[in-house]
Specification:
This is NERD domain-containing protein. By secondary structure, this protein is of the alpha/beta class. The protein contains 5 helices and 8 strands, in the order βββαββαααβαββ. Strand 1 and strand 2 form a beta hairpin. Helix 1 packs across helix 3, helix 3 crosses helix 4 and helix 3 crosses helix 5. The longest helix is centred in the middle third of the chain and has 24 residues.
Length: 180
């Protein structure tokens, strides 16, 4: 089992997972230390031969802040662009790691194989916590954000995009998320 904390949320990836906290990995730091403005996703993992990419944003108790309101309004264009850029940069780091990593080389190589396999869907989860009392409004916002992110990630092909938070059952098997 792998248990990671990110942005006030604890993620428990069960025994079927091979998962890492990507933005703390040597493979990411090797690139980000040398290429200014490189951004990394929070988690990358493999479950049942599927590549899963997770980015966590926790705006709970800050949703009424002016800056946060702006980031989350309508299609959350700026936020979805930021997440798409993190995915783009992270996949470049994964490629470099598969070529040059002396740390967990087999993991990086297998992730690259999954990326290149057009029969395998890459699953992207934007885990966004935000305050919204009206359940229907929350669902609508999440659906709009998902569509915006999916549009920005069209270049990745064969992609399964979801927006999730603690109020919803995780779209991942053998993974539990709880607030810290």
């Amino acid at each position: 089992m792998n248990i990671f904390n990110e942005s006030g949320i604890s993620f428990d990836f069960g025994k079927g997972w091979e998962c890492i906290k990507f933005d703390e990995e040597k493979a990411y730091k090797r690139v980000s230390d040398n290429v200014k403005h490189t951004k990394g996703i929070d988690f990358i993992g493999i479950y049942n031969r599927q590549l899963v990419i997770i980015e966590v944003k926790n705006f709970a108790n800050h949703t009424s802040d002016i800056v946060t309101k702006e980031r989350l309004k309508q299609e959350a264009e700026e936020l979805m662009t930021e997440i798409a850029e993190k995915i783009r940069d992270s996949l470049a780091c994964v490629s470099a790691a598969a070529r040059f990593s002396t740390n967990n080389h087999a993991f990086w190589k297998f992730i690259n194989q999954l990326i290149l396999d057009s029969n395998v869907k890459v699953k992207v989860i934007a885990w966004i916590e935000f305050d919204e009392r009206d359940g229907e409004t929350k669902k609508i916002k999440m659906r709009v954000w998902r569509d915006t992110l999916k549009r920005k990630l069209q270049w990745l092909h064969a992609i399964d995009v979801s927006i999730n938070n603690i109020d919803n059952p995780p779209p991942l098997k053998d993974c539990v998320a709880t607030a810290n």
